[in-house]
Model the fold of this input.
Amino acid sequence: MVSVSDGSVAQNGERVTSEPATAEMPKPSEALNGDAKGKRTQYIVWRNVILMTLLHAGAVYSVFLIPKAHPFTWIWSYLCFLMTALGVTAGAHRLWSHRSYKAKLPLRVFLAAANSMAFQNDIFEWSRDHRVHHKYSETDAIPTMPSHRDVIERGKKLDVSDLLADPVVVFQRKYYKTSVLVMCFMVPMLVPWYFWGESLWNSYFLSSILRYTVSLNVTWLVNSAAHLYGNRPYDKNISPRENRFVTFGAIGEGFHNYHHTFPFDYSTSEFGLRFNPTTCFIDLMCWLGLASNRKRATPEMVQARKLRTGDGSA
Ligand SMILES: [Zn+2]
Ligand SMILES: [Zn+2]
Done:
């Protein structure tokens, strides 16, 4: 019915509001790949449930350690959180999944290390699954709850040659387990112990367990809350929404209706730097000469799209 010229959105009335839960925020990989024999993972992956329960119990316990820890450990844990988040937002998401800007080798190495700190599947897998997520949520042919196997199957049909052509991506994938051990657990734990005499117990629980658990939950919010709560000023026909709360936690990734409408935009938002630390970071990297070619939707494009498909809320 609605005619569309830019081809970025399919439009046959009904939209599916649920998303492939594993696509945007895959959980640690092994737990999701339990269907090697070809069975569909429509059942509960108990190993995953147990691991996640233990992790969250550890995170709750960590909260009680906060008053006992050195203030530098608090600051360090927060810095680790920011680096973790950038590894996903500026790295796997805006750089590798969407190619919304270009990054030189030193920056790609930093983002790959930060991405291992995030422990949300390696860059290749994350980006491939995320491209599937966009494909699913921007067309009508989406099964309500595809298994991780479906996501992988569909991922095989996408062009991921650009990812495999990046030696940083290939290297991180090859040494993923080691890099996670070092970046997600060892470095966050050892720095406070070595530099200001924090106990290994405190630094393990605060800088590794609590920081990791919070970052996982924030990323899940992008896939859940940002697809359920909020307005849709750019395209009312798709499920992703603008969600301030998620934007705040996910350092700029909650402008989700905008992002799914203009996925190539490096800022994932109409408002540039506002509420968007990831955009600030990419701009800083450009200023330092480590990044370039930032893609952006023009104000005219955004305005025209709002009038054509927006819900009139902004
Ligand atoms: Zn995206
Ligand atoms: Zn999404």
